[in-house]
Each structure stands twice: as structure tokens, then as C-alpha cells.
# Entry
Amino acid sequence: MSDNVLETADRLWRGETDIAEQFQFFPETSVAEVADGVSFVRSFANVSAFVTGDGLVLVDTGSPFFAVAIHDQLRAWSPEKLRTAIYSHGHIDHVFGVGPFEEEARSEGWPQPTVVSHEALPRRFDRYVLTAGYNAIVNQRQFQVPDLAWPTNYRYPDDTYRDEMSLEVGGVLFELHHDRGETDDHTWTWIPEHRVLCCGDFFIWASPNAGNPQKVQRYPSEWAAALRKMAGLGPEVLLPGHGFPIVGADRVTRALTDTAELLESLHDQTLSLMNQGARLDEVVHSVRAPRHLLERPYLHAIYDEPEFVVRNIWRLYGGWYDGNPANLKPAPEADLAGELAALAGGADRLAARARQLADAGDLRLAGHLAELAALAAPENPEVQRARAEVFEGRVAEEASIMSRGIFAWAAGESRRQTNG
# Structure
């Protein structure tokens, strides 16, 4: 048992430490009691646990990497059997911790735990099986874990619901609510007896994961509306899917409403420009997140980025066509790169110019030219070295995990091709 989780949470809120230092893929798993009979297991994806008169209730269960450690931490806190597990959504870091409790139940002769989720969650599991190869690739790239394997066996829920569900376990009421946000299968859980809100990934101690360039559609406007509904309940403790607890009604309300305001601003700016006929390029380079919100210690763009949220809003309302007619039925990228390289006097000229632009600080434009050069002359070692240097420069300038992951992956491709 550790109070470090709550102490760290308080320092983060006050700005005395940076959330980027705590946002780790493999953090040390620890548990803290945040209220009488309520514990919070800090992990990459957190787990919230509640003691009832008929065993434990968990909101989320953890990832494949931490399932055993989470079980051990909870057993140090309570010996009670697991009665019910609630999945906040179907991302794999939240749904792989039931197994150790089921094994324990078999050995102890206890009833097997019941798993509850929104009705859309099983379809997510089905899709994950269908796209296991793709998901392995994009998550290797996003998190820089080359050997990551995507699972194909899932613990499906026993019970599902559509809009709302009241679940009483051992005399404690759990109110489940569905709203679309980061996913279409999201559940946020309100426990009125404790004034505790388990919000899943609606709040993650970072700018919302509402853009993610390699993943499926997100729903920023509905996300913001859900956050305002949560705030209206007056919760006194917020237990998020990632990050740290927030304790105190004023802090919880501010965290939820600030996040809603950020999403609403991005949504409204984007939609306004779309309604004026702007192309995606203009929208992406015109919409700006309110600086005062990004400066909040819990809204730094260290995972996803507002720019990516803008693209997701465009995709939600406008589909994949970006307004540029040349992109409707484009030539193969390598053909275009070859033509531009010929006009420039060769791929080496493009690569050299990319280096010049990078040295001058224009890494966005440098990235275009470096990629064109590599497409035009993929076997040219000097071109590949230039591409690696440009994207390594981009990694050094980026704060978000998603940008750094993609740029680092590109640089690594070129380094491997030239053996360094």
C-alpha cells in the first residue's frame, strides 16, 4: 500500500512535477486507497476497485503485461473474491486482467466473476481479431515496441447494456452510462455512495486522445458533452483510465470542464471552416487550441495532439477527401516523387534541400522533401541517411508519443536500410 500515488497526483495538479515524467508505457504498478473501501491501482491503464458486501467490483482490469502484478497489488489490499468487472471500453490495456481472478476462483471454489460492458464492445473484439496484423504494426510504431504481438483471444462480457445500467453488488450501486468519445463502446461509471467517478479514457491527464492518426474514428463533440454530464453529478473523486486520481470536487469539475472546453473549441473551429468550404489543408493549419487550456498540467499534448483531433473531426463530418482534386485519384507516390526528383535534378538534390530546410528549422517542409527523395531513389544510401536525419530531427522537436513514434519509425527504416 502506498500514498505515493495521491502525493504525486497533488504535485501534478499544482504543477510541481511534469506529467510527461509520469506518462510511461511500463510504470511501476502500485495501489492507493482513495476512500474507505475504494482503491486505485496505478498502471499503464489503471484499475479501480470497490469493496462490497458480496466481494470486489473492478472498473477496468489492466493490460496483458500487468494482469498478474495488478492481481497481486489488489490481493495485498483485500482478500475478497472478485464479483464483477466493468470494462470502460475494449482497448486491450483495459480488458486483460480478469484471468488471474478466474484462476483464483477455480482454485478457491468461488463463483466465476461476471464481466459487464457496453453492447458495442464485443464487436470491437471481433474487429481486433480481424485486423490483428494491422493493429500489431501500428502499435509497434506508436509505442516503439518492435516485438509487440496483437492478441486474438479475448474475455468477452457476460452482460451488456445500451444506454444506461444500474448495477447493485453487495449493497453498493454502480451506475453505468454510455457515451461515445475515444471509442464507440465507452462506459463511465458513477458510484454515488462514494461520490466517485470512474471515467475510463474520457480523461487521461493529457490532451484528449481524440485524434490518433493510426486508429479508428473518435467523437470529440459527444466526448465533450459526456464530460459536462459527469461534472454535473458533482463527483468528489475522479479515477481516470490513465494518469492519476483527482481528489476534491472543485478540482474534478475543473479537469472535466476544461477538457470539454478544449474539445468544443477544436470542434467548433473546424466545423466553421468546413462550412465555409475550406480544404483540409487550410483547416489543419488554421485551427488553434486555446493556449490557456494546453497549459493546464492535465492537458499537455504529450500523447495525442490537437492537430490530429482536427483531422478526426474532418473525417467524422467530411470523409476522406481533403478538398484537393489531385488527391481524389492520385498517381502512385513513387511516380510523383520520381517526376519531382527529375525536375529538381535528381533525388540527391531533393535530399540535400531537405537537409538545408531541417538545418533552418523548417522540419515540416524538410520531411516532405526527404520522403520524396526516398521514394524516388529508395536504394540510394545518402538519400536514406538524409531521410533518417530529418525524421530524427522531428523526433527531437516533438512532445507527443504519437508523433515521436511515427517519426522515429521512419528514421529507423532508413537507418536499417543503410546499416546506420
